[in-house]
Design brief:
It is built from nine helices and 13 strands. By secondary structure, it is α/β, with parallel strands linked by helices. The strands form two sheets. The chain has a seven-stranded parallel beta sheet, with helices on both faces.
C-alpha cells in the first residue's frame, strides 16, 4: 500500500508539479535560478530588452574583423532604438565566466525587471545582454578560466563597437554598463579600445563591475621600493666599531600604472562591488597573489610572505575583493641554520607571511630584501559598494542572482549615478 502511494506521488510530481515549475516565468522571491535552460527559454522578455550575441561573429578564439563588428553593432542599436523624437537610456549587461546564451538572457531579463521596479533607476531604459563565448570546456576549472580570459579580450572588440555605435547615435541617451565576474575584463578591455579610438573621459556614463574578476591594481597607479641590506655584515661592523666598515645598501625605485588606469576614465562613474567571502575570486586569482601592472603578472609579491602594514594578510587581489589599506610589503630574509654536522647552512625563508616564534638573529641573516608597494587610485568618481551592507545573497560571487540583493544593489547604483548627474 505504501509503495502504491509513493508511485502515485511520483506520478503527480512528474505530471503536475514539474511542468508547472518549468513554465513559471519568475519565482516569487529568493533566488531566481538561471542555470536551468528551460527556465531561461520560458521567461518572457519585457519591452526594451534585447540580445547582442557575438557568437556568429567569432570563429573560435580568432579576433573579429572590425568591419564585421561595426556592421553588427549598428544593426543591434538600430533594432533597439527605432526612429523616435526623444532619447532613451541604454544599459548593457555583460555576463561572466561559464555562461551560455539562455542563462545570459535570463540574467539580463532579471536585471531589466528590477530596473523597471527600482525607484531611482530608469524604467524606460533599454537593456541589451551582451553574449560572448565564456563557456568552459572540459577540465580543469583553472585552465578553462585562464583560457576564457583570452576570449574576454577578443570579445571586448565587438563590445567596444557596440558602445561606440551607441555613443554616436543621437537616439541613445545615458549609457551604463553592468559587468559581472569575468565580464569585467570584457568591459574594461572595451573601454581601453574606446580610449584608443579617441573617446574622451566620461564617454560612457557609468560602468558597474559586479564582483569583477580583474586585478584590483589594474585601475591603480603604483610605486615600489626594493631595499637590500646585509644584517650579519652590519652587526659585524658594529662589533668592530670601525667607521670605515660600511655595509652596502642597495635601494631601487620603480613606478607604473595598471592596465586600465587610464582607460577606466572613459567611464564617467566607476562603481565596484566587493565582498570579503567571495571564494570564487580567491580561487580564480590564485589566492594571495598581487598582480601588477600592465601584464597583470609583473612585478608581484609572492604568495606566502605577502602582508599589509596594517596587519591584514594579502588575500585575493581581484577587484571584487576589498583592497587592503596601507602599503603592501615583503621581507625576504634567508636564515643560516645549524646543520647536522654542527656547521651552518642555508635554512628556511623568513618572511612577513610566516609567524615565527621570534625574529631571526641578524647575525644569521646574510642578506635581507624588503620590497614595498604603494598604490594610488585617481578615478574622480570611483565608488565601492560592500555587499555586506546589502541583503545577503545566496552566493557572494553572484549577488545579481538573489532577488532582494539585486534590487538593493541596483537601487544603490542608480542613486550614485543620479548624484553624479546632480539630480
Amino acid at each position: 500500500m505504501i509503495r502504491c502511494n509513493v508511485n502515485a506521488a511520483l506520478r503527480f510530481l512528474l505530471v503536475a508539479v514539474v511542468p508547472t515549475m518549468m513554465a513559471t516565468p519568475l519565482p516569487a522571491g529568493g533566488t531566481t535560478v538561471c542555470d536551468e535552460e528551460a527556465l531561461a527559454r520560458e521567461m518572457i522578455a519585457p519591452d526594451g530588452f534585447g540580445l547582442a550575441d557575438v557568437y556568429p561573429l567569432m570563429s573560435g578564439d580568432v579576433p573579429v574583423r572590425p568591419e564585421r563588428a561595426e556592421a553588427w553593432a549598428s544593426e543591434v542599436i538600430a533594432g533597439m532604438f527605432p526612429e523616435s523624437n526623444g532619447t532613451r537610456s541604454l544599459v548593457v549587461h555583460v555576463h561572466g565566466f561559464d555562461t551560455e546564451g539562455p542563462k545570459a538572457r535570463c540574467q539580463g531579463i532579471l536585471i531589466k525587471r528590477s530596473l523597471d521596479t527600482t525607484g531611482d533607476a530608469r524604467p524606460d531604459a533599454a537593456l541589451i545582454s551582451f553574449v560572448w563565448p565564456s563557456k568552459r570546456v572540459g577540465w580543469p576549472w583553472v585552465t578553462n578560466f585562464s583560457n576564457r580570459q583570452g576570449a574576454a579580450t577578443i570579445a571586448a572588440m565587438p563590445l567596444s563597437r557596440l558602445l561606440l555605435a551607441a555613443i554616436r547615435d543621437n537616439r541613445v541617451g545615458e549609457i551604463v554598463v553592468i559587468a559581472h565576474s569575468l565580464g569585467a575584463q570584457v568591459a574594461m578591455d572595451a573601454l581601453d579600445n574606446l580610449a584608443r579610438a579617441g573617446i574622451a573621459p566620461g564617454g560612457v556614463d557609468a560602468v558597474i563591475l559586479v564582483q569583477g574578476a580583474i586585478p584590483a591594481v589594474s585601475i591603480r597607479a603604483w610605486s615600489g621600493t626594493m631595499e637590500v641590506r646585509h644584517p650579519a655584515y652590519e652587526q659585524w661592523c658594529l662589533v668592530r666599531d670601525d667607521f670605515r666598515c660600511k655595509p652596502p645598501i642597495v635601494v631601487e625605485h620603480g613606478s607604473g600604472a595598471g592596465r586600465y588606469f587610464g582607460s577606466s576614465l572613459v567611464a564617467g562613474t566607476l562603481i565596484v562591488t566587493t565582498a570579503n567571502y567571495d571564494r570564487t575570486l580567491w580561487h580564480a586569482f590564485g589566492t594571495d597573489e598581487l598582480h601588477m601592472p600592465s601584464d597583470q603578472s609583473r612585478p608581484q609579491t609572492t604568495p606566502r610572505p605577502g602582508r599589509i602594514l596594517s596587519g591584514g594578510e594579502v588575500r585575493s587581489l581581484a577587484i571584487g575583493n576589498p583592497f587592503p589599506e596601507g602599503n603592501a610589503y615583503n621581507i625576504f630574509a634567508p636564515v643560516m641554520m645549524p646543520d647536522i654536522t654542527g656547521g651552518r647552512g642555508m635554512g628556511a625563508e623568513f618572511g612577513a607571511g610566516a609567524i615565527p616564534l621570534a625574529p631571526p638573529d641578524p647575525l644569521d641573516v646574510m642578506e635581507q630584501t624588503t620590497i614595498t608597494y604603494a598604490f594610488d587610485l585617481q578615478h574622480p568618481r570611483y565608488h565601492e559598494i560592500p555587499l555586506e551592507g546589502l541583503p545577503k545573497p545566496d552566493d557572494w560571487h553572484s549577488p545579481l542572482a538573489t532577488d532582494a540583493t539585486r534590487e538593493a544593489l541596483l537601487a544603490e547604483v542608480w542613486r550614485i549615478i543620479a548624484a553624479a548627474r546632480g539630480e
